[in-house]
Write the structure tokens for this entry.
Amino acid sequence: MAALINVPAKAKRGDVIEIRTLTSHIMETGFRHTADGALVPRDIITSFTCRYNGTEVFRADLFPAIAANPYLSFFTVAKESGKLEFEWIGDNGYSSTASASITVE
Amino acid sequence: MPTTRRQFLSIAGGATVAGTIPIVTLRPLEATPATLSTAIRNVVGEAQIRTGKVKLDIPPLVENGNTVPMTVSVASPMTANDYVKSIHVFNEKNPQPNIGNFYLNPSSGRAQVSTRIRLADTQKVVAIARLSDDTFWQVGADIVVTLAACTEEMN
């Protein structure tokens, strides 16, 4: 459930800021077998969304080809002070959220 | 190269006579297996894919396919009239051809996404960007993988 979020605490209005996120998840592909031949069921995060004061600014569909503990980095324009909310949704009802605040001058 | 119907028929006819089955497809990049083409067509539809604008930063040689850093960037001003709608990344030889779909908008400011991916074999990775005018641009990269991911046994 743990997530690491890297968002600049302060930014000038109009700046393009980088947002980096890392969450802990096994991202089991569903293609691996145990030593006795049983298929290990898939357990991945399938969707990631970032909302900036309620507006979606970035979304991603993830597949088994994304490495364990998914890392995502993307950009957005600093428009106003407020909150960035992050949401990860996955198999077996997995859901995790995180947030970060930013001050825009 | 545009092919006229007449040229196509003469080539196809010749190939059939020679005992081979003519395969004529709109190939996004040369020598891509069928699953990759299908996955790309599912996203792109019938639209033409042009080469350029997209940049794929990925190491050419990786020792461990379980976590390969990758950055896709697209040359775009990211204004309200001209921006990148989405970036789609595909692979050639993993059990599944998709890697990720990333959806952007004008407020992204910069069309660049980084993540870490898995590669099951030495193969080609293709990144396709959809721009706001619904044109598609692609780039491919060949990666040599020494330790494969995805399908190994669990300990």
About this structure: The CA atoms of residues 48 and 88 of chain A lie 5 Å apart.
